[in-house]
Amino acid sequence: MLKKIILLLVAFTTDSAFCQNSADEKLFNWFDSEIGKQNLGLNNGLLFNDVYPTDNKTNRYFENEKFDIGEVEFDNQYYTAVCINYDLLQDALLIKPYCENDRNSLILIKERNKSFVFKGKKFVNLNYNTSIKNDNVNGYYEEVLSSNTLKFYTKYKKNKRDKYVENRIETEYDLKNEFCLFYKNTFHKIDSKNSITKLFPDFKTQINDFYQKNNQSLENNKVLFMKNLFNYINGLQ
Question: Which of 95, 150, 161, 204 is deepest in the core (most CB within 10 A)?
Fold first, then answer.
């Protein structure tokens, strides 16, 4: 509540939209620093513990085990300069209230977390808005493309498998992507070219041509291929 009051004051005392955005961010950080991270509403969740020893060639996280500065929208409150990491095995957002000085990390309560920004990417909880039918989605997705007519999302998941090495067990992780399209107020699972042409039958010829011309891109970077495809389809509408 105090943070909202502060930002209302900023709105009346700045001369431009640019100044206001800059002042807002500074005040967010000042607010978090002044009252102490241990008192923030973000400090909600279970203690995280990684119990699976790995061979150090793979890991369960979005990139690696290191935490980085990001942004979180939790309980209708926006927090900047938060030390976070993204665990793909449990689809969980991890936070460290005292950043790298803190040995412990918490699993943020997903049901109360609307979105976060990590490694320059925006991730949204597609189950957060219960007023929209969301049977085809589960948890956090990267918002790859957003327009007035459609939104394209990518899900990052990691599955684990155990292997025996010198009389001990080590865990390896495999990355898997899933794709989802929000179109005509419905979430649609995208798992093949056919699932796309069913949604856009009028553009079936153009979609087939796009696949043929960009086949190499599909093999090298499927996320980028899908982003470019739906950007192309969006321009056809």
Answer: 95
Dihedral sign of CA atoms 63, 67, 71, 73 in order: positive
Over residues 166-194, the mean pLDDT reads: 91
Mean pLDDT of 6-12: 38
How far apart, in whole angstroms, are the C-alpha atoms of residue 83 and residue 69?
5
**What's the token pair of residue 38?**
């241990």
Structure tokens given for 120: 């320059």
What's the order of all strands across the beta sheet hosting 77-87? 45-47, 106-108, 92-96, 77-87, 68-74, 113-118, 121-125, 140-146, 150-165, 168-183, 186-190
With H, G, I as helix, E, B as strand and everything else as coil, classify residue 10. helix
**Range(s) of the domain holding residue 68:** 39-190
What's the number of domains the chain is made of? 3
In the numeric block, the tokens 């119990």 are attached to 51
Residues 43 and 14 in one domain: no
Q: What is the per-residue pLDDT for 134?
A: 73
* Whether residues 140 and 69 fall in one domain: yes
Helix axes of 204-213 and 222-236: crossing angle, nearest 10 degrees: 150
Q: How far apart are CA 10 and CA 27, in angstroms?
A: 9
Tokens in use for 158?
A: 């990691």
The answer to whether 174 touches 159, Cβ cutoff 8 Å, is yes
